[in-house]
Structures are given as C-alpha cells and as structure tokens.
Amino acid sequence: MKDLNLPSCYVVSGKFSDHDDLEIKLRRILENKHPLIQLKRLQSQTDEDYKQAAEVAVKICAEFKAILLLACSVELFEQTGAHGLHLKSAAIKELEERPISDDKILSVSCHDIKSMQKAQSLNADIILLSPIKETISHPNLDPLGWEGLREVKEQISCPVYAFGGMKLEDLDDALAVGAQGIAVSSLWK
Fold this sequence. Notes:
- The protein is an alpha/beta fold.
- It has one domain (9-184): Aldolase class I (TIM Barrel), CATH 3.20.20.
- It is 33% helix and 17% strand.
- It is built from seven helices and eight strands.
- The chain has an eight-stranded parallel β-barrel.
- Helix 1 runs parallel beside helix 2.
- The protein is globular, with a radius of gyration of 16 Å.
- It starts with 8 loop residues before the first strand and ends in a 5-residue tail after the last strand.
C-alpha cells in the first residue's frame, strides 16, 4: 500500500450554484487546512457540468497542494487531472479488479464489514465507513457507533474514515478507535 500521508479530515463537498461559488467554498476549506477533498456530484449535474466543475477544482487543489477525489464514473474520472476516484459501495460489487491505476487514489464508501473487505480486495486506498452516527442521508441504516467502527477497523488494513453525522468535534473519538480520521460534509458552506 502506498504512503499517502493522509490528513485526519476528509471533506465531502456539497451544493454550489456555479463555478465561482465552487471556487469560494473550496478555497475556504483549503485555507482552513483541510487538504483532502471529495467533489461530490450533484444530482442535477450532467457529465459535462461535473467535468467542468472538476477542472475548476483540480486547478484550485493544485494551487494548495491538496488531494482531490471525484465521485463519478471511471470514464469521466479518466478525463480529468484529479488525484483519485471515490465510488459508492454498490459500484464495487461487480468489480473483480481495481478500476483505476495504482498511482491514483481509490476511495470507497462502505456500510458494513463485507463491503469493506470487498474494497480492500480491490486495493482501495481509503474507506469511508458510514453511518457512525444517525444521519439524514442514510435513515434506513442503523448507526455503527464508535465501538462498531473499532470492531470492523481491526479487520481492515487500509485507512478508514468515520462518516455519517460527523463534526470536527468527533475527531478525537474517531482517532481513539483506530480510524484515520473523520469524513465531513458539514464544513462545506
């Protein structure tokens, strides 16, 4: 596994109205020393819209020497200069091999040990495990809690970020149970 020198906070972007708004919000995050960003794809975005937003984010992240992950298809990702790709757990179910080259970062959202093991078998570099706390984005899933995170983290060797209901105040709890840190969307304002 490559040494990524990952930070303790993984920021997942939220809504933005246009490229100027994206730039303002992204710069605010990076100026606050959060150098690991996932540019989430908005439901209303076409492939071309997302690609253009990714191009803006690539330039800004390069300026700050930050890591940019895209949440899109492999094909769209390969048309960009981003550092890595983020996939949902459903997207990896049918994969038999890592979908991107080893010199890029592969991040995967997981909700249980089975999906984490699948991500690890694909040589994922990062796992976002959720939900740790109750969250409106996954109302049908029971929160794992800190002990649940500890139990599954002990079975996985790649870095795991606690996700779902996380705030900066949760960082110490995440670190205490062996997580790399927390993944947060609440910082995107």
